Amino acid sequence: MLSVICNAQKKYSKGNPKKIWKTTNYKTGDIPNCLKFIPSIVDKKMDNFLKINNDSNQDAVIKLVKLDYVNKTEVTSRVSFIEKHSKYKIKNIPSGKYYLKIAYGTAWKEKANVNESCSCRFSLNPKYEKGKVLDFTPIKKQYGTDIPSYSVIIDSSLLKQTPPKNDLYYHDFGEEIFVDSSEKLKAKE
To answer: Does the reported pTM lie above 0.85?
Structure first.
């Protein structure tokens, strides 16, 4: 199961110590509340896009992650919920190389934690995938510049279900692939 601890912008009541998981009802393009702490990185000068077609029978939460080879870091640029059998377009992506971290599943749930952060995950049939690198670096040509855009199809049907683990940062191409190191740092604070 996907579990992410983060500092959400939404404040939760500390009154319920049972930490009840609440089912959410997000639509395509929504940013789950538990992931709203991730700032959307946009470059209005870049007239490009990444069109994502979720052909899966499961909902998906995607992270567009920028690779920084010089500093050997990865930074989440965008996050979106995409309903099953839906399409979504991310626009104005800054120059650079990126890949998708994808969590698939049914019944996205969130719960408040005592420290005013929250946890979130797909509670049924969770699956995880890491996409190929997409290069959004403009290509200078003799008579202008080409701005790359991409269309990808995501589908969880060939992936195996990730078995639930108690360890929050389970590393078997499961939850670890969806949790950034910056999120781990926030989780430890």
So the answer is: no
